[in-house]
Design brief:
By secondary structure, the chain is mainly α. 72% of the residues lie in helices and 8% in strands. The protein is built from seven helices and three strands.
Length: 180
């Protein structure tokens, strides 16, 4: 009985020390992650944009729409499709590129304690975020084409915003658990 009691006490002490270590690791992660927010805010405040990313996003979306049978037209970064009672058009702007989601995945990866090699391997997942974002834009045009504008705001602002957040988090967890 005395051995069991001693073991329990020893486990409690170990658990407390692990909690302090874990708390410190979490704090370090949060500090690093928030340091990555500084460039994000500087990009937003400065108005910096990568024009080629907007153009590529518009072009990819346009070709995806055409490949799936939607009669789309494009002028610059403005994509138009036939819709109920007329035409629906949307401009592919800087926020449509998914750059914040890609940056968030980058920040999550580089805020960890893993080796630089593993972090660099994690960068291969950033194009997956871009691809999901392209699918998001394509889906929104498809949605309007099939269902009109009635629920566009709900689908765009709520479902897809959470969908991109979930995509980033799932990819981050997959990277942490399965990338060697």
């Amino acid at each position: 009985m005395k051995k069991t009691k001693k073991r329990r006490e020893k486990l409690k002490r170990q658990k407390k020390s692990l909690n302090k270590k874990d708390a410190f690791r979490i704090l370090k992660f949060l500090v690093r992650f928030n340091l990555f927010a500084i460039p994000l805010y500087l990009i937003i405040v400065s108005g910096f944009q990568l024009g080629f990313l907007k153009d590529a996003t518009a072009d990819f979306t346009f070709h995806m729409l055409r490949l799936t049978g939607i009669d789309a037209s494009i002028t610059g970064n403005l994509i138009s499709i036939p819709a109920e009672n007329g035409v629906f058009a949307a401009r592919i702007d800087w926020d449509c590129t998914g750059w914040k989601s890609m940056f968030a995945l980058f920040a999550l990866i580089f805020a960890t304690d893993f080796s630089m090699r593993k972090k660099l391997h994690g960068l291969v997942l950033i194009p997956a975020v871009y691809i999901v974002n392209l699918l998001r834009i394509w889906f929104m045009f498809l949605f309007v084409s099939d269902f009109g504008l009635a629920y566009y705001d709900i689908v765009h602002a709520t479902i897809w915003s959470w969908g991109l957040i979930l995509t980033v988090l799932v990819l981050w967890v997959v990277w942490m658990r399965f990338f060697k």
